Amino acid sequence: MLLGRLGLGAVFLYAAYTKLKLPWITFAATIEAYKLLPESGVVFVARTLPWFEATLGALLVLGFGLRWVAAAASALLLAFFAAMVRSYALGLQIDCGCFGPGDALSWKTLIRDGLLTSVAVALAVASFRTSRSRARPMEPPWSGQTS
Amino acid sequence: MCSRAALVTLLVLVGLVGCGRTTPETQSSATAAAQPVEKASAAQPEATPKAPPAKQEATPAPNPPTTERSTSPTPNPRPIERKRTPSSNDAVAPLVSKTLGTQSAPITIEVFSDYQCPACRELYLETLRPLIDNYALTGKVYLIHRDMPLSQHQYSRLAARYENAAAQVKELEKVSTALFQKQMQWSIDGNVDRVVAEVLTPAEMRQVRQMVESGKMDAAIDSDVERARTFGVRQTPTMVITHNGRSDPVVGVVPYSMLRQYLDELLKK
């Protein structure tokens, strides 16, 4: 779980970096190519998503609020993956947008992002289970014994 | 907790330093002569029909328009990078003058496109046309057209030759518009000549045909393709926007209103 958390966090931080080092219009063009959002939505996502990714990445690396952060990361990656699958099925020749421009949408990027999504979901599930097992009070060893 | 807080602070600082913009570097590259403002005239052409070139079947472009990728193996398949050299408002002038606006404009936009690319068509008709009217002709943007004919498009290089020749007779905008508007037509039959002849005068058309047939326009096209390589451009359309010595790529079709918003932000800086 530690490796998954750190790895996923590093990926999110890197993804945020590749987007933030370029102006928002570059990422906006990539989002626009998916033909999913209205223009106002495209601009909003282009300006805010990289910071959200950076925040998620930092929190994952640090291990703060792991359950909810992992859940948020899973939801985000699931949404990305669904959009990618849709665009690939439609035959759109576009960039993935995952790590900046030049990362073409292909079956390789689908597999890559599918794996990342799986890791995120597994991390979220594991963190919820771990939290639940910690919350359950320990039963005394003599409970359940009959006299 | 204190150590965690310190770590968070450090991470935020590193993020701000790493993700924030660095100071722009001004480039002292060679300057080209200032280009005059150019706008297409409204001349009515009298076309003389010419036998179309040998044609082969070409498959129509797919819908909806998406960016086109080069299918030729590239010697340096790196992702697009933000370039600082050669970049600045003293952008390398194309061999053939395919510019609109004044070179002293604060923003330079180099548009790499393929005339047979549907996404390039959409970009030109929906985004660049209003951009030309509202930004290039008002001195805010220096627009440079760069040809990047993709190997999978059978007639795009031929169209680029005609466009370069048209630029030599100062009818770049008119011919570009005609080529994109009738893209579906000539993409199928390869009759670029007819489309261009419809918008030029007979005298202009004679000059254009002469230049196309001489093969001299290929040098200009090859120069543009080489420039695309220096920026790592592998898709069309791609706009490379240069402001204050910094060049950033924008790949794909961007709505005019979005591009305008970005350009206005740049102009305020």
Give an overview of the whole structure.
The complex is a heterodimer of chains A (147) and B (269). With 147 residues, chain A is an all-alpha fold. Chain A has one domain. Helices cover 72% and strands 0% of the residues of chain A. The longest helix of chain A has 29 residues, at 107-135. The relative contact order of chain A is 0.15. Chain B is of the alpha+beta class and 269 residues long. Chain B has a domain at 81-268: 3-Layer(aba) Sandwich (Glutaredoxin). Mean pLDDT of chain B is 76; it is low at 16-63, 73-81 and 83-90. Classes of the chains: A mainly alpha (147), B alpha+beta (269). Chain A binds chain B through residues 13, 16-17, 20-26, 28-30, 32-33, 35, 39, 42-43, 50, 54, 58, 61-62, 64, 91-95, 100-104, and chain B through 4, 7-8, 11-12, 15, 18-20, 62, 64, 66-69, 78-80, 82, 232, 234-235, 241, 248-255, 257-259, 261-262.
Core attributes:
heterodimer; A: about 150 residues; mainly alpha; B: about 270 residues; alpha+beta; Glutaredoxin; 5-stranded mixed beta sheet; two-stranded antiparallel ribbon; globular
Provide a compact summary of the structure:
The complex is a heterodimer of chains A (147) and B (269). Chain A contains five helices and no strands.
Give the SSE order of chain B as H and E letters: HEEEHEHHHHHHEEEH
How far the N terminus sits from the C terminus of chain B, by CA atoms, comes to 41 Å
Beta-sheet strand percentage of chain B?
A: 5-15%
Largest sheet of chain A: none
The beta-strand count of chain A equals: 0
Give the SSE layout:
The complex is a heterodimer of chains A (about 150) and B (about 270).
Chain A: H1 2-20, H2 24-33, H3 39-62, H4 66-89, H5 107-135
Helix pairs in contact in A: 1-3, 2-3, 3-4, 4-5
Chain B: H1 2-19, E1 68-69, E2 99-100, E3 107-113, H2 118-136, E4 141-147, H3 156-168, H4 172-181, H5 183-189, H6 192-197, H7 202-214, H8 217-231, E5 235-236, E6 238-243, E7 246-251, H9 256-268
Parallel strand pairs in B: 3-4
Antiparallel strand pairs in B: 1-5, 2-4, 3-6, 6-7
Helix pairs in contact in B: 2-9, 3-4, 3-7, 3-8
